[in-house]
């Protein structure tokens, strides 16, 4: 089990191998995922303070670049899987955007 610390929320036990976006939803973090986890909308962005989520995929890289998000510590939670302890901060949430989250990303 990984310890996932979500700044401004809480810490929870994450399950290695599962998508970060779904684990955030399951642990009551109101992160957006407007495209349903397809890596297109970038609303599920998180800032990674600690932890490694592996190499960035081409889909993730292209989607972030297309929207002007080029910082190395910004990742799409629907495109990364938990693989150890991490500290992150959701960038867009239902609370700060007043948007509906979107369909649950497929596992």
From TrEMBL:
Belongs to the adrenodoxin/putidaredoxin family. InterPro entries: 2Fe-2S_ferredoxin-like_sf, 2Fe-2S_ferredoxin-type, Adrenodoxin-like, Beta-grasp_dom_sf. This is (2Fe-2S)-binding protein. One of its GO terms (molecular function) is 2 iron, 2 sulfur cluster binding. CDD domains: fer2 (cd00207). Its cofactor is [2Fe-2S] cluster. SUPFAM superfamilies: 2Fe-2S ferredoxin-like. Signal peptide: none annotated. Residues 2-94 form the 2Fe-2S ferredoxin-type domain. Keywords: 2Fe-2S, Iron, Iron-sulfur, Metal-binding. GO terms for biological process: P450-containing electron transport chain.
């Amino acid at each position: 089990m990984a310890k996932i610390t979500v700044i401004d929320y809480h810490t929870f036990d994450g399950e290695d191998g599962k998508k970060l976006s779904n684990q955030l939803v399951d642990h009551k973090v109101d992160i957006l995922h407007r495209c349903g986890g397809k890596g297109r909308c970038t609303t599920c962005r998180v800032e990674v303070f600690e932890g490694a989520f592996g190499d960035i995929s081409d889909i993730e890289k292209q989607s972030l670049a297309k929207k002007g998000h080029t910082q190395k510590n910004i990742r799409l939670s629907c495109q990364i899987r938990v693989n150890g302890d991490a500290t992150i901060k959701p960038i867009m949430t239902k609370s700060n955007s007043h948007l509906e989250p979107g369909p649950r990303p497929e596992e």
